[in-house]
């Protein structure tokens, strides 16, 4: 069970109220997924969902900021 879960559609953290994924959520996700491509794929889906939610709420986020927030901390898979 992930305590630092996103509160949708505003995408802040349920535990610490920072923008999701907060530092702790990132650590939990990295621990849960380990290395590999799945985390990046899932975070890309969540990035799309969050961008759509925030845009619908009239708070269209900066695409570069969102990319860094959702994917900037995900380790690239090694080939
Ligand atoms: Zn949190």
UniProtKB/TrEMBL annotation:
Taxonomy, superkingdom: Bacteria
Protein name (record): Flavin reductase
Organism: Micromonospora qiuiae
């Amino acid at each position: 069970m992930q305590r630092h879960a996103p509160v949708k559609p505003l995408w802040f953290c349920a535990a610490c109220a920072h923008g999701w994924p907060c530092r702790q959520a990132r650590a939990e996700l990295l621990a849960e997924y380990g290395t590999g491509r799945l985390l990046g794929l899932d975070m890309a889906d969540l990035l799309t969902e969050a961008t759509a939610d925030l845009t619908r709420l009239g708070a269209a986020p900066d695409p570069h900021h969102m990319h860094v927030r959702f994917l900037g901390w995900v380790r690239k898979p090694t080939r």
